């Protein structure tokens, strides 16, 4: 799963994300494989992560 959200500094590779109140196929615990934090000008910052279901 790919997820992009407002800047979330605590989102780190090998971390976990618990998705709730979304589509049934997405509601579960995910492991973060990679994450990129973007701090843009004008106060627009985001975090984007690639996630997999944990083994």
Explain this structure.
By secondary structure, this protein is an all-beta fold. The chain has one domain. Helix content is 0%, strand content 49%. It has a four-stranded antiparallel β-sheet with strand order 1-4-3-2, with no helix packed on it. A hairpin with a 5-residue loop joins strand 3 (29-39) and strand 4 (45-52). It is globular and about 35 Å long. The mean pLDDT is 94.
Structural class: mainly beta
Question: What distance separates the N and C termini?
Answer: 15 Å
Radius of gyration: 12 Å
Q: Count every beta strand, where a strand is a DSSP E run of 2 or more residues.
A: 4
Which word captures the global form? globular
- Give me the strand/helix succession: EEEE
For the record, the count of structural domains works out to: 1
If strands are numbered along the chain, what order do they take across the biggest sheet? 1-4-3-2
Mean pLDDT: 94
Q: Residue share in helices?
A: under 10%
User: Unreliable runs, pLDDT <50, ≥5 residues?
Assistant: none
Number of H- or I-type helical stretches: 0
Strand content: over 45%
Biggest beta sheet summary: 4 strands, antiparallel
How would the blueprint of this fold be written?
Layout: E1 2-6, E2 16-18, E3 29-39, E4 45-52
Antiparallel strand pairs: 1-4, 2-3, 3-4
Brief digest:
The chain has strands spanning 2-6, 16-18, 29-39, 45-52. By secondary structure, it is an all-beta fold.
Overview features:
four-stranded antiparallel β-sheet; 55 residues; mainly beta; globular; single chain
């Amino acid at each position: 799963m790919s997820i992009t959200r407002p800047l979330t500094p605590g989102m780190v590779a090998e971390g976990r994300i618990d998705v709730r109140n979304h589509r049934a196929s997405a509601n579960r615990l995910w492991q973060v494989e990679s994450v990129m934090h973007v701090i843009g000008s004008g106060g627009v910052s985001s975090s984007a992560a690639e996630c997999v279901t944990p083994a």
